[in-house]
């Protein structure tokens, strides 16, 4: 086979065979296909799309390009939740300890933030000393001991995706349904959990800006997971506004701790209860209503918080920070962002909020950039809230004071006010089994 023939076939709208897709992906993995041909392949897929069978084959080829995380020594059903990426989305930090405290094993591999979206690994590293690079044996031993561990993706997991993703990023081919599906699901299937709950975000802060596209993404991902023998469900959830009030690593960890302690913002608490209940019901722990009651109980009796503290201790952090969040280092500089007009916040460009946090130092523009764990934004007003001129809508935090002006301008430009309160939207907009 020749790469140029496969590229031409896709460019002309042909349907690739399983053999052609496997051959191409193995050439990506072993380095025999040069970057310019991989890039041309991505562009051909971007314009021509792929059938469901092609997308599934591409996903399985990416999954098989590296190690499959078989963890038979952990025992029991392993369950994971994956979010397609959003702003202020700290749900994994809350849901994982909740379900682990109810006896479901969580052996989770998470990513770092990139662009306007945050990543669980960066957030957890806000605990000084927290290790996300556990060896396989340490990972298994942590899950056996505490029921939970969250680590970064090992370099051996789906290496073809690393190459593809890096090239998509610089060839403007990220927003392609088959490429997004195969990238997310290739990694998820390589992690080899038994049950996968997909939290597909929709709206101005997510990759998919419309509900129709998000539902399509969800449907294909669930079907591919099922084809590979996994239990899978997807919820389509709102990302037209940030989740909770905190954006930025340690600020989000603190908000997650408050939520686990029963004192979190209502939207974040509700979405976490819904997602955790779904994860439990997928792992045969009862009906959705029974699961909801169990989730509410471990939040109110402190056992979910205790599970987080146990995980922090096991992975090298100081568990006292879970019970005294004043121990997290604070940013040296802060500044308020105020409303200029009278009215209601009718809409936010949530991606712009993510960009403002990135400018303050909370995110990274390139994969190798460091993050400032204390940088970020606390929102005091969100969509639907009334504002008057001078009201503080957000406080910015950073260790780089020169970023405050630009971040403030981006946040202001991303906040739209109007005379009428907008209709409130449900947090869960759809469900795909
Ligand atoms: N997350 C991924 O891992 N890949 C994509 O293509 C988009 C989001």
Helix percentage range: 40-55%
Give the CATH class of the largest domain.
Alpha Beta
CATH level-4 homologous superfamily of the largest domain: Nucleoside phosphorylase/phosphoribosyltransferase catalytic domain
**Tell me, what's the shape?**
globular
Strand content: 15-25%
CATH topology of the largest domain: Pyrimidine Nucleoside Phosphorylase, Chain A, domain 2
C-alpha Rg, in Å? Answer: 21 Å
- Alpha carbon gap, first and last residue: 38 Å
Count of individual beta strands: 13
Strand order of the largest sheet: 1-4-5-13
Main beta-sheet annotation = 4 strands, mixed
Report the order of strands and helices. HHHHEHEHHEHHEHEEHHHHHEEHEEEHEE
Which ligands, by name, code or SMILES, are bound?
uracil
Question: Brief description of this entry?
Answer:
The protein is α/β, with parallel strands linked by helices and 433 residues long.
Secondary structure: elements and pairs:
Elements: H1 3-11, H2 18-30, H3 35-48, H4 52-63, E1 79-83, H5 91-100, E2 106-110, H6 120-124, H7 136-146, E3 148-152, H8 159-171, H9 177-191, E4 195-202, H10 211-227, E5 231-238, E6 246-247, H11 249-260, H12 266-282, H13 288-300, H14 303-314, H15 320-323, E7 333-338, E8 343-348, H16 350-360, E9 376-379, E10 386-387, E11 392-398, H17 404-413, E12 415-418, E13 428-432
Parallel strand pairs: 1-4, 2-3, 4-5
Antiparallel strand pairs: 5-13, 6-9, 7-11, 8-10, 8-12, 9-11
Helix pairs in contact: 1-3, 2-4, 2-8, 3-8, 4-9, 5-11, 5-12, 5-14, 9-10, 12-13, 16-17
The structure holds uracil (URA).
């Amino acid at each position: 086979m020749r790469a140029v023939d496969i590229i031409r076939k896709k460019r002309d709208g042909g349907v690739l065979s399983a053999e052609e897709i496997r051959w191409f992906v193995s050439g990506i993995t072993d380095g025999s296909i040069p970057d310019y041909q991989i890039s041309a392949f991505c562009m051909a897929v971007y314009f021509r799309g792929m059938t469901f069978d092609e997308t599934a084959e591409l996903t399985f080829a990416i999954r098989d390009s590296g190690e499959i995380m078989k963890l038979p020594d952990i025992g029991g059903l392993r369950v994971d939740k994956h979010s397609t990426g959003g702003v202020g989305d700290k749900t994994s930090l809350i849901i994982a300890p909740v379900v682990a405290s109810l006896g479901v094993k969580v052996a989770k591999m998470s990513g770092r933030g990139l662009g306007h979206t945050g990543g669980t690994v960066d957030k957890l590293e806000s605990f000084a000393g927290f290790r996300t690079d556990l060896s396989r044996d340490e990972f298994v031993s942590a899950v056996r001991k505490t029921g939970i561990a969250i680590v970064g993706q090992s370099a051996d997991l789906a290496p073809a995706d690393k190459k593809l993703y890096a090239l998509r990023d610089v060839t403007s081919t990220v927003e392609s349904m088959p490429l997004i599906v195969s990238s997310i699901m290739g990694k998820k299937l390589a992690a080899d959990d038994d049950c996968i709950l997909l939290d597909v975000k929709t709206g101005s802060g997510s990759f998919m800006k419309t509900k129709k596209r998000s539902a399509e993404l969800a449907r294909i991902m669930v079907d591919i997971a099922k084809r590979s023998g996994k239990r899978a469900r997807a919820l389509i959830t709102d990302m037209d506004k940030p989740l909770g009030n905190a954006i930025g690593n340690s600020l989000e960890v603190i908000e997650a701790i408050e939520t686990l302690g029963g004192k979190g913002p209502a939207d974040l608490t509700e979405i976490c209860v819904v997602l955790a209940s779904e994860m439990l019901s997928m792992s045969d722990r009862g009906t959705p209503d029974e699961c909801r009651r169990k989730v509410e109980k471990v939040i109110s009796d402190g056992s979910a918080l205790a599970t987080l503290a146990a995980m922090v201790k096991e992975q090298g952090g100081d568990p006292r920070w879970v019970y005294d969040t004043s121990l997290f280092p604070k940013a040296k500089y802060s500044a308020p962002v105020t409303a200029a007009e009278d009215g209601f916040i009718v809409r936010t460009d949530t991606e712009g909020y993510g960009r403002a946090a990135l400018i303050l130092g909370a995110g990274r523009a390139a994969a190798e950039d460091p993050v400032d764990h204390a940088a970020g934004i606390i929102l005091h007003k969100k969509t639907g809230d009334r504002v008057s001129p001078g009201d503080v809508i957000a406080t910015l935090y950073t260790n780089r004071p020169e970023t405050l002006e630009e971040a403030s301008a981006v946040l202001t430009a991303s906040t739209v006010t109007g005379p009428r309160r907008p209709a409130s939207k449900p947090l869960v907009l759809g469900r795909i089994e």
